[in-house]
Design brief:
Blueprint (H helix, E strand, L loop, with lengths): L21 H13 L7 E5 L26 H13 L4 E5 L9 H10 L3 E6 L12 E5 L4 H8 L3 H10 L6 E7 L7 H8 L5 E6 L13 H17 L8 H4 L11 E4 L5 E2 L18 H10 L3 H10 L5
Parallel strand pairs: 1-2, 1-7, 2-3, 3-4, 4-5, 5-6
Antiparallel strand pairs: 7-8
Helix pairs in contact: 2-3
């Protein structure tokens, strides 16, 4: 574990420490943060590097081959228990494609027994409904012609068909904006909004090996202005906070989350650091922007998150 992580030294007594009292508990944690206890609250967990797709902008499954070793079910359960005892309350389970792990249902059951909230990030092309996380995120690259150009022919229809079978689990679509889709935000929302709870947008990170689709600073501003306009119209449920869309620069609070590699290595840096040294000045990723907006008590961000997602959990 990274020596720079300042863990909460008071273990949780029971899963009931987090649940209906989650907001009061978060406020207590935030007060303790102000007083100097900078303990992480979230964990981004890369369960696997395996993936059934090969997206143009994604480096996660290209750095290693699919035959790389993975942790066993019991090893992941031990890690989840350790994270919970150290103060983590929300697990974001990613890949690769995490639903490729056959033991994912039992890993989720274990996490929930610890009182953890779970979010599974998936491409939506497998059978996601066999598992029951607290919520899903699904990747949507744009309308069909764009999505399939990135992920392969037929994958957009496969995604929509799976979403239509949703048994009632909250789902947030996540769109990574780049030169191929940043002018198609409204068309993307028209295509998926009837089938998801809320839509979130982020910007392609400038990974050193995947930079051909990166937006210029001016194009990023155009996309942010589009999102602000669409939010103001109230036609769509958009997760991004206004405060993060209006700013060119942004201060993140990296200490509020840890990243866990597919080999169980826990680090204080964001998940970009699992591949290369993070370039925070060029980063436009929406994940830490949302968490940081909540952490800074931006009321619009809190209200937007509750209105579009939390009340459905």
């Amino acid at each position: 574990m990274s020596a720079t992580i300042k863990w909460d030294r008071r273990p949780y007594r029971s899963p009931s420490d987090f649940g209906k009292r989650s907001l009061p508990y978060f406020l207590l944690r935030r007060l303790r943060w102000t007083l100097g206890n900078r303990s992480p609250f979230f964990a981004y967990v890369k369960l696997t590097r395996r993936c059934n797709l090969d997206c143009a902008y994604c480096p996660w499954h290209t750095g290693t081959v699919n035959s790389d070793p993975e942790l066993s079910s019991n090893q992941w359960k031990d890690i989840f228990s350790d994270l919970a005892n150290r103060g983590i309350r929300v697990l974001v389970l990613e890949g690769g494609e995490p639903t490729l792990r056959s033991d994912l249902p039992q890993l989720l059951d274990h996490a929930h027994s610890l009182g953890l909230t779970t979010v599974v990030g998936t491409n939506g092309t497998t059978n996601p409904w066999r598992i029951r996380p607290t919520a899903f995120t699904v990747s949507v690259d744009g309308p069909m012609r764009i999505h399939d150009s990135v992920r392969g022919s037929g994958n957009f229809d496969r995604l929509l068909a799976n979403l239509e079978q949703n048994p009632g689990i909250p789902v947030a679509s996540i769109t990574v904006l780049n030169r191929g889709n940043y002018r198609l935000i409204e068309e993307t929302l028209d295509a998926v909004m009837p089938l998801v709870t809320v839509a979130g947008f982020t910007f392609q990170y400038p990974y050193s090996a995947r930079d051909e689709l990166l937006l210029t600073p001016q194009e990023v501003r155009v996309a942010r202005q589009t999102l602000l306009r669409l939010k103001k119209s109230r036609r769509f449920r958009i997760l991004n906070a206004n405060v993060s869309l209006r700013r060119d620069t942004w201060t993140c609070y990296p200490e509020i989350a840890v990243s866990v590699s597919h080999l169980g290595e826990i680090s204080s840096h964001c998940f970009v650091g699992q591949i290369e040294t993070p370039d925070c000045k060029s980063c436009q990723l929406g994940c830490y922007r949302l968490l940081s907006a909540l952490h800074s008590f931006n009321f619009e961000a809190w209200f937007n998150l509750y209105r579009h997602l939390l009340r459905h959990l």
